[in-house]
Structure formats: structure tokens, C-alpha cells
Amino acid sequence: MSGPNTDYDPVEVTPLKADQVEAMREAALAAIAAAPDLDALKQVRIDHAGDRSPIALANREIGALPPQARKDAGQRIGQARGAINQALAARQVVLEAEHEERMLAEETVDVSLPTTRRRPGGRHPITLQSELIADLFVAMGYEVAEGPVVEAEWLNFDALNLGPDHPARTMQDTFWTEPADHHVVLRTQTSPVQARTMLTRKPPIYVVCPGRVFRTDEYDATHSPMFHQVEGLVVDEGITMAHLKGTLDHFASQLFGDGITTRFRPSYFPFTEPSAEVDVKCFVCRGVESDACRTCRGEGWIEWGGCGVVNPRVLVACGVDPEVYSGFAFGMGIDRSFMFRHNLEDLRPLFEGDVRFSSAFGTEI
Amino acid sequence: MKAPLSWILDHVDVPAGTTTEEITDRLTLTGLKLEAIESPGRDITGPLVVGRVLTMEPEPQKNGKTINWCTVDVGDANGTGEPQGIVCGAHNFEPGDLVVTVLPGGVLPGGFAIGARKTYGHLSAGMICSAAELGLGDDHDGIIVLPADAGAPGEDVRPLLGLDEETIEFEINPDRAYALSIRGIAREVLVSVEGASSFRDPVLRDTPPADDAGHPVVVEDAEGCPVFVARRVSGFDPTAPTPDFMVRRITAAGMRPISLAVDVTNYVMLETGRPIHGYDADKVRGAIVVRRARDGERLKTLDGTERSLDPGDLVVTDDSGIIGLGGVMGGETTEISDSTTSVLVEAAHWDAVSMFRTGRRHRITSEAGKRNERGVDPTVCEAAADRVVELLVEHGGGQADPGVTVVGTAPTMPVIEVPGDLAARVSGMSITEEQSIACLRAVGCDVAGSATLAVTPPPWRPDLTDAQDFSEEVIRLVGYDKVPSVLPTPPSGRGLTRSQQLRRRAGRTLAGEGFVEVVNFPFVGVADLDALGLTADDPRRDLLQLSNPLSAEAGFMTSTLLPGILRAAGRNVGHGTTDVAIFETGTVTLPRHSGPAAILPVDRRPTEEEFAALDAALPAQPLHLAVVAVGDAVAGGWWGEPRPVVWSDAVEAVRSVAAALGLEVTASSVELAPWHPGRCAELSVEGEVIGHAGEVHPTVCKAFGLPKRTVAAEVDLDLLIARSVHLRQAPSFSSYPVAKEDVALVVDASVPAADVESALREGAGELLESIRLFDVFTGDQVGEGKKSLAYALRFRAPDRTLKEGEAAAARDAAVALAAERTGAVQRA
């Protein structure tokens, strides 16, 4: 078949007749359409478009035709093969889609199954509350100051205008350490950090110091020998009580909600003069007096902490010139703030370490 | 301080119609905070009237009790005027007595509703009341029998018993000691309540002049006792009862009525603020001498306690010796008794600091001491003594002796310079100088001058010593509620320090790993360290001792977080939470045994050396991190079996924190309590030991109520933070193909995998990109006492594709070095 078969009678090449080619095409298209799956289609491809398929065999016969007939026959065969291949491709797409659909259907799972392999962790709500408060002040430009919990008596008391014979020392039941003449205490307040801050920084000073403090209180629903305070200290030129009020109003609204303000009542702290107790407007009944409000017990206000203008004596002991600078300080119980913010009536769960308690707060509050 | 309202209003007038709440609201805003308003009759409603017992018939009952069937005249209070039939179980009365009768419809404290009910065969229409039933104390000895002249049957009994009396309890700050008296509170009402007027000062009275006829008194220590007034009442009837109004007021003020003589001194103390002591004059021998105690002297005080006195204590003596701890508590020998007919009245002014020290030294808290140590008006001694004498004479039937002893004079108050604009500058309000002067005068100061004011505080305000103290007086009267709200403008801040950020990061990392944070008290006892199994020479046994711990079992500051966190884990397990993973960060206390922390002066800044010495005197307080896990690390479920917690979870917890700080932790075997001796890792970063982790010793688990296989770690977080990598370099990596080589090495079981790995790493050279131990295998195939370690090695060059055989050569070099260092033999 390498050369033209001139002797061959073209009339005898039946596979190339138009009706034959048409029949091959029809048979192929029918088989393609009938192929039920990809495997069947594969066989159809072999049978009707493969090397041994009738149409492929017919194609080989083209050379046997006289030149004038080759063109027609070639065109006829080519069109038929084109149609078959097109049909194969189209059927392939359809069957693949059907196959995938079936496979995916078979892979269906019950998505309502439990998925938790590991219990979620969580941070302690007091840690979170402390960080939240620190962040509020950092956002205002404050820095977070720190100091040790086992503290020098002088820094915890004397430097803060609480001399050895100050009656206010009995207000704070102090843990003392041995030997007694070493004058070391567990800090009763975060205020020694005030003193440390003034001793180590130059004004202007804008700091908050959250931390643990200790008092010899028996452990019960509302008392703990260890609790947490946040102290704020500002020392700058021209600082007044009005700045203190503004700062605490802002603090209160950030922590408890828009419109929650503070109220000052005269009080006494040796390290501030004038001194004030700070009440925060009840964020539950919002100060609309209601005897039914459990949070403020119908008073409309909640005791929040203490504050005042830094006593010039404290400034002197800490090396700040009271003729140039003035300051304010405030201190709040973090545990207490947490308790009324989150409706906790007994503080003991804070220190019992039950994972059910802490994990309820996750990693942010 | 509890103050009956009627007593306050004896000394000041408020506009008609002013409610108690209006008064307390104002006082709260000016500095006397309301604690509570009490009224004994608050819980009693309905008819509570005077009744006269007409008849009473005792009727023995089967149960052995005898009840009285009474008829009681209650006037028209029952609507009929007919006698009321009432069954009464008490017997301490008789026909004709006036009694307290609650009629049907009344409600007694505790929600006890009274009706007419059948009992003991009678219709009992009401009840005859005891003091306890009315909430007036615990006296259950019988019903109240009213004085014969108390009132007519049917009258409301409330005013007679003071049931309608309101008592206001205030919280008194240490700088307002003057408000520990009716006098002081009435004065605050005057300056605080709008329209209040006509202050009637209880100490403003004519007192007889001092003479030489009174009881002889010598004050040897005029600084400790600047004023000593002595008066005497004789012919006093020791059986005379304390008048009802006085009993009611003393009781309402929180004190216990004792006898007329004692009650009068307490009454006058409450009224004037001046503590007063009464001696049985017949038991006082000779002249009274006031001096400091001498070493070795002793005194048995009124409370029956024998006390060794300190040379700092002020004492009152007579010829017999010490008869009282001046200003704090009297002695037993001269105590007023039920046979006392002569009373020697002492009203003395004592040095507040001495009072404070004595009270603290002897652990005495008394009403007298509370006032004396906070500071009392030194000018009122004579008036207070005179008031006592007056009341003793009036109610005890005695007569005042003519002699009046007054030793010393009240110290004068200093004049203090106060800038006229100080209150304005401190408050941020526009307060004029005139306003300031007016406020200062209102609280009793003498004010002279302008611009700079010369202010003399009143004698009852020893707390007003500094210029700034006066600004508070002005501002509180102008009103704290008027202080404007202004935000200051801080300079730009630097945010959290790196250390603060990293501490948060450590906590977040562990929370992300499934650990829950706990907070424990830092108190520990030796038994806790024993429970950890610490050896006798373990440095963690060096503890800072508390002088006054809450419990003897936890008398120290802890040196390790482990006892607290193990106990917390045990509590969780005890509560039925079987899978627990917790962590704690907290400082521990490591004594340095350095010198005392000096008490420095306060009139100047400490020097740098002094300040540094203070810090050096404190124990080291590094921040530790501890974790404990027990139970399953991964829960079982439809996905597969649970994965129990193993020793390596503790190591991994620390590694994950370290990784968050950019650090790599190496672990090596060590034996250390409280860990399992074969399962404890010493953890290091860059060669420095930062802590330990592993499985907790089974004995320790048991001691803390934990199941075996509990794991724990404790590391010094400060050390980790100090080493954390601040600026991490951006990585560069090769995009040429990777060549993978696996090797399995057999080594002695005792060879640490870390050693094999580091030998492989070193031997493989620079082409090694990573190495991972993917299997550890022991068993017959590798031989007894051996283990097989399978490593996956990845090789890559930064700048080219590796040539055929390059990776294999590097692998062989790695194996060769491992063989040399650790005796490793490559498995076929």
C-alpha cells in the first residue's frame, strides 16, 4: 500500500462509500450516546475511534482511490471522525461530571458529629481584666509600672505618708515577714509602685500599675488575703482634681459603658489630700434608683475605689518638687470591678482554680 | 459611729420636713458616709400598745407548763374598749402591771403575724411581748413590764420603747475623729445640711473654776498628758438605774449598758467625744500621779488581763501602785462596782501617738482608745467632767464635791499659712479666696490675712496640719460633686514594655494549647514541700517566713508554684473533671538573706544608694510559670482512641511558650523532686537551665489527690523573657530541589536521642536543611538494651541543585559522626 493502486477498481472500495461512512458514524454516535459510564466510553472509543475501528480502517483505503476521488472520500471520513471525536469528548465531560457527583454523594458525612478533640484553654479572668484596664490607659498614653509584692515597709507605708504611728496603718491589716526588724511586708496596696515610679522616673509621669496585694483578711465570700488592685498615678505641672475626675469618668465609661460616670465623696488616705472615695454609676440600673437593682442594691452607685490629689509630703519623700508639680492617684480593686461587671457574688471561684470557671471567659473579656 | 438621730437633733436644728435621708445624703457628700439607718421598730407594723393586765389565771397544762389566761385593758385600741383575752406563757408580771401588747393584725420582726387563734382552750387575741420578740435584744426572761407611769392603756408603745428612734451609722475616716461624737456630727449637720442652724455645743457650759480642794493630781509627763481634770461625786446610790433614754442611746450607739456610773461616762464620751474614766474614789489611795511605766511593772486591766507594761505606756498611779493604763483602760483595783458610792471622774487629754502605740502593743481596742489615738479636742476636759458630774448627781442621787482639779493646759493650735488660691489650684474649680475663707470658718478655723491666709484650725481638728489639708475642707464644702471632669493630656506613651507583651504572649500561647489559667495564693507550709518530696538540702526549702500568717500550715511565701497548682489540679479531679490542663504565672519568693530594709527619712528623697539598698534587702521574686496536666490530652471519639497525657506534654508546653518567644529549649535527663526519677527533663535555653518538666512522681501524685501519670513543669519565665529574640531576621530559603534521606540508627537505650540528633546534625554539614526523628522503636529486632531511632533528613543547597550522590555522602558523614559519638549502628 505504499504506492497508488492504479489497478484497483475504485468502485470496489465499498467502505469509502458515502452510505457506509454515514453508517459508521451513526453506529459510533449511537454507541457513544449509549455508553453508561467512563469505562464503557473507553471501550466505545476503542471500538469506534481506535486504530482498529471501522472508520480508521476505511481511512486507510483512501490511498486506493484515484486522485480525483480521494478528496471527497477524505473529506467524508474526516468529517465523520470529527463528529465522533466531538461526541466522545462531550460524552466524556458528561460522564465525568456524573461520576464526580456520585463519588461526592458517596462521601457524604454527618457534619453534626462532635469535633472537639481538645478542650479549649483559657486565661484567668483577673488577668484579662487587668490587661483590659492596662490597655485602656495605654491607649491614653500611660505606661504600665510594676513593683515587687514582697516590699520594703518604707515604700509600702512611710514614703506614702503612713508613718509608723499613723492610725491608718491599722486600717490595713498587714502581713509582716521574719525577721521582723528587717521591715519587709507583703504590700497591702499597689501604692508602693507609685513611690517606686516617682523614684525612678522624671515627671511628667502617667502610669497605671495593676498587681497583687495582700491583707490579713480571713478568706470568705467577700474577703481574700490576696486580691488585685490597679493604681493610677499622674504627676505633671498643673494637675488638679478636675483631671482626676475626667480620667476616672473616662475609665468608668470605657469599662462599664457609655454614659457611666463617677461620683466623689470626701475620704481619707494618707497619700492623697484631698482624698475621695469614687463611686461609679450603676451600669445596670444606670443610676435610676430602683430598689430592685441587685448590683447597686438600689443606691444607684457602686463603691469603686479611692483617689485623690497626691499629698505633697509623698512628692517630697519621692524626690518630686511639690512647688513645680502636682499629681493625682487612684486605686481600684480589680477583683471587685470584675465581680460587679460580671455579676459574681462570691469571689472565691477566682482563687479555687476550677477550670470550669476560668475557661468560661476564654481569652478575652 | 452609730448616732441616734434624736441625739444629733438635740444639738442642731434642721428645717422642718427634712428627712433622715436628706440629712444622710448631704453628710455622705461632705465626708460622713452613711453605712446604715437603723430603727429597732422598722420591722414592726400594726397595733402595738400599752396594756394593763386586769386578771391573770394560771392554768397548768398536760405538758407540764403553766400558762396564764389574762385579760388586758388596751383602751380603745381594739375598737371595742372591752378587755382583750390573751394567753401568756411568762410569769414575771401581775395584775395591774402595764405591758406591751400587740393586737391581731400586728406583725413582729421576722414576719411574725399576730392573729386571734385558739390555743390552750382559749381564743387568744394578741400577744404580750418580750424584748426579744420586739427585736430589742436577747432577753428571753419574760415579758416587758413597763413603769407604772409609762402611759395609758391603748397608747402606742413605740415612742415609750424608742422603737421609732432612728440611728444613723456613719463610716468615720481617721481624719475625722471629731465625728466620733454627737458634737462632731451635729457640727457636720450644721455645715452640710442646707438651712441647718442653732448649733448647741454640748461642751459650751459654765464650769466651776479649778481650785486646790480637789483630788490631788501630779502629772510627771506633761507631753504625754497635757491636761488632767479630776472631779468627785459622793453619796452616790450604786443601785440607781440608768435612765431609759440613756440606755437606749448607749445601746443604739453600739455600747452595752453596765451601771449608771459607767453608763454616764460612756454617754458623755459619745456626746462630747472625750473619753472619761471613773474610779471608785474610795479605792484610790492618795494622790494620783501620771507618768510613764517602768520596766517590769504590771497591771491587771478591767478586762481581767494581766499586762506587762512598756516604758512607753502612760500610766495612772496612786499610793498603791498603777491603777490604770492612761487613756486606754482602767485597772481592776479601782474599778467601779455595785457598791461604789463615790466616783472619781477623770477627763484627761492624752498624747495620740502614745495612745496608738499602747493600744497596738497591748492589742487593746476600746471606745476610749479609738478616740484618744485619733485625737480628741483637748479643750473640753473640764466641760466633759462637769457634764458627768451633773448626770451622776441628777440620776444617781449623789452630790458634787466642791473641789475641782485641773492640771495643765490644752496645747494651742498652730497657725498655718495657706495660699488663698490653693483650693482653686488643687481642685481645678474657680473658688474665690472669700469662698475659701467662709468654708474654713464654717469648719471652725480662725482665718486672718489675704492672699496668704493665716489659718488656725479648731482644737478638735488635730488632723489639719498642712496647707493642703485645708484645701480639702474648702473643696468638700463647695462640693466634690462640683469638680469638673477634664481629661489631662499625657505625653505620647511607649505602650507596653517588651516584657509585659511577652508575658501576655506566654499566657495566650498556653491558652491556645488548651491550658486554663489559675491563680493560687502564694502561701506554703513545710508540709507542702515534704509532700513534693523535696530533699533536705533542696534550695526550694529556703522560704521567707510570715510573722502573722492566716494559718500555721501556710506560714511562708512559696518558692515554687507547684504545691498550689498541684492542689488546684487535685481539686478539679475531686470535682469530677478528669481531664485537666492548667497553668499559672506568679512570682515566687527566694530569700537573699540580705540586711534589713531601712526605714528611711521622708523629708527628702532617698539617695540612689539608699534606694538600691532597699531593693537589695528584698528577696528575689522571679516570675515563674507552671503547668499541670492530667487525664486525656486528646479526647477519644468517633475519630479514634483518646490520647492520654504523657510526660512529654509538660515539656511541649514549655517548648511552645519558648517558641512563642523565639527560643529553642533543649532537654536532658535529671532527677529532681517532685518528678518521676526517670521522667524528668531539665530544660535549658542557650545552655542556661530555665526549669524542669516531666511526669510527677507517683507518691507526689497521691499526696495531692492526683492520679498517676500527672505531668507538670515549672520554669522561670523571667529568664525566658530576658533571652527572647527581639528582632528576628527574615529567613531566606532555597528554591532548588530537596533531596531526602532516611536513616535508622540503633543505639544503647541509655543514649539520649538529643545527642544522636546533634551528632547527625553536625556530621551532615551545611547541606542539611532539616532533621526529624519520626520513629523510636525497641524490641527483639533491635536487641535487648537497644533502641532504634529513625530520622528523616532533608538536604538542599542554597544556590544549586545537589549532584548525584551528594546527599548520600552527607548522610553517610552524619551517620559516621553519630557512630563515633554515640555508638550508633545503622540498620540495614
UniProtKB/TrEMBL annotation, chain A:
Record-given protein name: Phenylalanine--tRNA ligase alpha subunit
GO molecular function per UniProt: ATP binding; magnesium ion binding; phenylalanine-tRNA ligase activity; tRNA binding
EC number: 6.1.1.20
Comment on bound cofactor: Binds 2 magnesium ions per tetramer.
Protein family per UniProt: Belongs to the class-II aminoacyl-tRNA synthetase family. Phe-tRNA synthetase alpha subunit type 1 subfamily.
Binding site for Mg(2+): E273
Main location per the UniProt record: cytoplasm
Subunit structure: Tetramer of two alpha and two beta subunits.
Catalyzed chemical reaction(s): tRNA(Phe) + L-phenylalanine + ATP = L-phenylalanyl-tRNA(Phe) + AMP + diphosphate + H(+)
Localization: Cytoplasm
UniProt KW keywords: Aminoacyl-tRNA synthetase, ATP-binding, Cytoplasm, Ligase, Magnesium, Metal-binding, Nucleotide-binding, Protein biosynthesis
Top-level taxon in the UniProt lineage: Bacteria
Entry-linked PANTHER family: PHENYLALANINE--TRNA LIGASE, MITOCHONDRIAL, PHENYLALANYL-TRNA SYNTHETASE
Family annotation (CDD domains): PheRS_alpha_core (cd00496)
Record-linked Pfam families: Phe_tRNA-synt_N, tRNA-synt_2d
CC terms in the record's Gene Ontology section: cytoplasm
Keyword Magnesium found: yes
Keyword Ligase attributed: yes
From TrEMBL, chain B:
Single GO BP term: phenylalanyl-tRNA aminoacylation
SUPFAM superfamilies: Anticodon-binding domain of PheRS, Class II aaRS and biotin synthetases, Nucleic acid-binding proteins, PheT/TilS domain, Putative DNA-binding domain
Subcellular location: Cytoplasm
GO molecular function: ATP binding; magnesium ion binding; phenylalanine-tRNA ligase activity; tRNA binding
Domain FDX-ACB: 734-827
Positions that bind Mg(2+): D463, D469, E472, E473
Protein name (database record): Phenylalanine--tRNA ligase beta subunit
Record organism: Nocardioides alpinus
Annotated gene: pheT
